[in-house]
Automatic annotation (TrEMBL):
GO terms for molecular function: hydrolase activity, acting on carbon-nitrogen (but not peptide) bonds, in linear amides. SUPFAM superfamilies: LmbE-like. This is LmbE family protein. InterPro entries: GlcNAc_PI_deacetylase-related, LmbE-like_dom_sf. It holds the Pfam family PIG-L. Transmembrane segments: none annotated.
Length: 233
């Protein structure tokens, strides 16, 4: 599939500030342009990404949150929620599943987008695996069954069925989104993450273009983002 997947409400769950933008910022720009409502949940605030370890981690986290909010605005995202777990120390726990189930029941997406927890690309941040696993556990079956986290249901967050998940960072993508028309917007969003600029000594634009070319090659697209699609109905 090389079309934009149909969605009206999209929840994107990333481990760190900038993950949603790096992995699917072009697709987000296309969804918001098509009239979809897109919201981010960011599980940590990226305090391990400090270029200088003498900085104050709390102040640095707030700066990364502000960068994430600016980047999301560039792509037309309406809301960013930060769960503020400690960067680098995320596990697929019942507590994280409960937090994510509450976010899903609150926002009520038809489509959820997160990290592929089972990719064999082993050079991956462990937080990405944990967030992908916990998000999928929340999306199926926890959020649809009132017997999961009944205290949320009692508080007014009724069960909700998510139709589909798209997983980014997958080694087996089957869904490719053409981002050529919005590529410059994706780069402009990523440029908002100024504290991370030193991670791209060759230049952000060049690296992001290379990734998009690699992602698009199997589908014959010049610039793409690639996902593994999972039916949750
Ligand atoms: Zn990350």
């Amino acid at each position: 599939m090389a079309d934009l997947p149909d969605a009206t409400r999209v929840l994107i769950v990333g481990a760190h500030p900038d993950d949603p933008d790096f992995f699917c910022g072009g697709t987000v720009a296309r969804w918001t342009a098509a009239g979809a409502t897109v919201s981010y949940v960011v599980v940590t605030s990226g305090d391990k990404g400090m270029p200088d370890p003498s900085l104050d981690p709390v102040a640095f986290s707030r700066m990364r949150e502000a960068e994430q909010e600016a980047s999301a605005r560039t792509l037309g995202v309406t809301n960013v929620t930060f769960l503020r777990l400690t960067d680098g120390e995320v596990f697929d726990t019942l507590e994280l599943r409960a937090l994510l189930t509450a976010e899903i029941r609150r926002f009520r997406p038809d489509l959820i987008v997160t990290h592929d927890p089972l990719t064999r690309r082993y050079r991956q941040h462990p937080d990405h695996r944990a967030v992908g696993a916990a998000t999928l556990a929340a999306a199926f079956p926890a959020c649809r069954l009132a017997t999961f986290f009944p205290e949320q249901v009692a508080a007014g967050l009724s069960p909700h069925v998510v139709g589909r998940a798209l997983l980014f960072g997958s080694d087996q993508p089957d869904t490719f989104v053409d981002i050529a028309p919005v590529f410059d917007r994706k780069v402009a969003a990523l440029e908002q993450h100024a504290s991370q600029a030193s991670a791209f000594p060759g230049g952000l634009h060049t690296r992001v273009r290379q990734w998009a070319e690699d992602a698009g090659r199997p589908a014959g697209l010049a610039l793409a983002e690639a996902f593994l699609s999972v039916d949750l109905e």
